[in-house]
Amino acid sequence: MIKDYASIVGMPDEADKRNIEFIIRLYESKFPGDIAERVRIEKRNEFENAGGRVSKFLIKNEESQLRKVLILPPGLDATIKDSYPTMFTDKAHFHWFVLNFPQFRVAEKISF
User: Fold this and answer.
1) How far is CA 62 from the centre of its chain?
2) Looking at the 3D structure of the chain, how many domains does it have?
3) Does residue 90 sit in helix, strand or coil?
4) Backbone phi, then psi, for 30, in 5-degree steps?
5) Coil, strand, or helix at residue 70?
6) Is position 22 within any domain?
7) Assign residue 56 a region: left if phi > 0, alpha if psi is -120 to 50, beta otherwise?
8) Is the CB of residue 35 less than 8 Å from the CB of residue 104?
């Protein structure tokens, strides 16, 4: 029995990585520097919101393990979701994306 769509499509591979890299290059050519600026601003906001008390994983306190892992511009996010609908909803696919595209990371380190 198939439990979800992610099980049907399987894990992303090198061809998927090249396709996503192409999507990112197109976005960067249209909006140069936008990704890096959004990440820089988000890192600063997360640090300020936590009163300067955040770990390398952006965990604000030990009671709450919630943290912001990455930031994507809305237009780029939507384009990737159109081609890869499970990329940000399936844990294994999300983990693959975070590992393969570190330019979007807000946290210095990741833990899954």
Assistant:
1) 23
2) 1
3) coil
4) -85, -35
5) strand
6) yes
7) alpha
8) yes
Q: What is the DSSP letter of 103?
A: G
Check residue 105 and report its DSSP letter.
B
Q: Closest Cα partner for 68 from 110, 112, 111, 106?
A: 106
Q: How far is CA 108 from CA 18, 52, 78, 86, 97, in A?
A: 24, 15, 24, 24, 15
Distances (CA, A) of 62 to 22, 50, 57, 58: 38, 12, 11, 11
Please name the amino acid found at residue 56: K
Domain membership of residue 3 (yes or no) is no
State which residues form the domain around 92: 13-104
- Residue 16 amino acid letter: D
Tens of pLDDT, residue by residue over 46-99, are: 766 666 555 554 444 454 454 567 889 999 999 999 999 999 999 899 999 999
| 3-state DSSP assignment of residue 15 | helix
